[in-house]
Design brief:
alpha/beta, D-Maltodextrin-Binding Protein, domain 2, 2 domains, 8-stranded mixed beta sheet, 42% helix
């Protein structure tokens, strides 16, 4: 009897100790990305392959990302800024150098001149995807042929125009329309663009980013500016939508995966970046987002399945690219001027 009682007590103690024992915390990687810019189903596959859980959150602009990092946002392990912002983050010492030995899939990427400007030695970033900016309009409501940025400033579309809600893109549209570079540092040219934006403000329905989806798809706005890949997604719900790269030229952007300075899970971040650059995952992300991976094998395989119209938007021709321009990191004096004028415009 005593032996039985002792055995029973021992079993209870074993289970009690087991329940009190702390489980080892699961490995994680914290990813901060643009909205609608990844196939989130890949997270489960990554966790299955590595045992690492993905915590995912989104931002609406490069400037919002920068502000978060500047305020001490060190909870991120992988961020996906655009070219000019990568350049700025490198210059300000806000990124970790990558150990490319942990990212062997970089051998599948062909960055070319798209990456040369902002990270020439490929020390701080791995290319994600690239695309163009253009005008999206509802052809059922607008029967005129849209070819120029002039349409974004046309009083005929008053109350139905959606404009970018960030200074770099908004000023970029105005400077291109006026015949200036996206990267002008000439104060007179920037102020001329500001005057144009002030005049436009009276006919703008709203300044938006991700919410442009609902407005153009649903018909509450008929014309706006946004990214080519998002247009491909949007027109699935509204086939009347059309996309055009204006004759004056536009922005061609390249986004890249980086690790912020002081990231807690750097090794996990490099595993995630390597996973993202694999051919299968790149194809899935291209299919979901409408943008172009710099994994050449993935781009070739995916592009072969597109119809002519989608291919022309997602894979712009050399003729289109010849009038496109990437954003570059600007001097602080110019950035301060943009910030001041943008604040004045929005008040």
């Amino acid at each position: 009897m005593k032996k039985a009682l002792a055995l029973a007590l021992a079993i209870v103690m074993v289970f009690a100790l087991a329940s009190c024992a702390k489980k080892a915390p699961q490995e994680v990687v914290n990813v901060y990305n643009w909205g609608e810019y990844i196939d989130e189903s890949i997270f489960k596959d990554f966790e299955k392959e590595t045992g690492i859980k993905v915590n995912y959150s989104t931002f609406q602009s490069n400037e919002a990302l920068y502000a978060s990092l500047e305020l001490g946002g060190t909870d991120y392990d992988v961020i996906i800024p655009s070219d000019y912002m990568v350049e700025r983050l490198i210059a300000e010492g806000m990124l970790e150098k990558l150990n490319l030995a942990n990212i062997p899939n970089v051998s599948m990427l062909s960055g070319g001149e798209l990456t040369a400007e902002y990270d020439p030695n490929a020390e701080y970033s791995v290319p994600y995807m690239w695309g163009t900016v253009g005008i999206i309009y509802n052809s059922a409501e607008i029967t005129d042929e849209i070819t120029s940025w002039a349409s974004m400033f046309d009083p005929a579309y008053a109350g139905s125009i959606i404009m970018f809600d960030n200074p770099r893109d908004a000023f970029g549209i105005a400077t291109k329309y006026l015949g200036y570079s996206l990267n002008t540092t000439n104060e007179a040219e920037i102020r001329a663009a500001y005057a144009l934006l002030v005049e436009q403000k009276a006919i703008v329905q709203s300044y938006d980013m991700d919410t442009i989806y609902d407005k153009l798809e649903g018909g509450s706005a008929t014309i706006g500016v946004y990214y080519a890949g998002d247009y491909i997604t949007m027109k699935e719900n509204n086939p009347d939508l059309k996309f055009v790269v204006p004759v004056e030229g536009t922005n061609v952007f390249s986004d890249a995966m980086c690790i912020p300075k002081g990231a807690t899970n750097k090794t996990n971040a490099e595993k995630f970046i390597n996973f993202m650059t694999s051919t299968d995952v790149a194809i899935r992300n291209m299919d979901m987002t409408g943008y172009i991976s710099l994994n050449a094998e993935a781009a070739e395989e995916f592009g072969a399945d597109l119809d002519d119209e989608d291919y022309a938007v997602q894979f712009p021709s050399d003729a289109v690219l010849s009038r496109c321009e990437p954003f570059k990191h600007l001097p602080q004096e110019t950035l301060d001027l943009y910030a001041q004028l943008w604040a004045d415009l929005k008040t």
